[in-house]
């Protein structure tokens, strides 16, 4: 993903969900490597490794389980990675919006 500004959410929640779908699909299928037996999995990382990285990792958690407790997801990320994971309020708000969208979709 290019042009995702540091300390900012993506321009739309739909973009975040779409990007999570791409990463999830790559995770499941791998990308073709140099030979047919090689598979390359995606790497998620941003400059600091806590804001955009945490946002994408949390989005992947939500794709697997929209009922996840986002506050607990953030606490788990901070315990296992860095106490600054998901520190940007606007990115966390976007995750909550994505979760609401996912829950509405699963309820329909």
From TrEMBL:
Q: Name one GO molecular function term.
A: protein tyrosine phosphatase activity
Q: Which residues form the Tyrosine specific protein phosphatases domain?
A: 17-92
Q: Which InterPro entries match?
A: Prot-tyrosine_phosphatase-like, PTP_cat, Tyr_Pase_AS, Tyr_Pase_cat, Tyr_Pase_dom
Q: Which Pfam families has this protein been placed in? A: Y_phosphatase
Q: In this protein, which residues make up the domain named Tyrosine-protein phosphatase? A: 1-58
Protein name, UniProt field: Pathogenicity island 1 effector protein StpP
